[in-house]
Amino acid sequence: MTPKTEGQDSDTDGVGAPSSDHGKSRHSGGRLIVITLEGHLDRKWMDWLGAIRMAHERDGTTRLWVAIPDQPMLYGLLMRIRDLGMTLISIIPEDRR
User: Fold this and answer.
1) Tens of pLDDT along 41-80?
2) What CATH number did the domain enclosing 54 receive?
């Protein structure tokens, strides 16, 4: 079973706009980061990756908003992305976008 789906236009799913706390984006006790992946990831993987929001972009990428409380969780998330066979394009803290 492949995690990617094809032929989807840009749309957004999940919780509304990320929260902000004194210039630093935070959610559920962690720093909010935006991960961009090549291809459109099926929405069924959102919970498994811990994403609070997902967007399929028109350029064929997927953006995920994830709250990361510490480095071990970030490394675990990167291993899950690797296990899905997705190509990582970028990881950007929400407060630097």
Assistant:
1) 999 999 999 999 999 999 999 999 999 999 999 999 999 9
2) 3.30.70
Count up the domains in the chain and report the number: 1
Measured distance CA(27)–CA(7) in Å, rounded: 31
CA distances from 26 to 6, 15, 20, 73 (A): 32, 14, 6, 15
Asked whether residue 86 is domain-assigned, the answer is: yes
Range of the domain at 77: 11-96
Domain contains 56:
yes
Element holding 73 (H helix, E strand): helix 71-84
**Strand, helix or coil at 18?**
coil
Does any domain span residue 70? yes
The H or E element spanning position 35 is strand 30-38
Q: Output the pTM of the full model.
A: 0.69
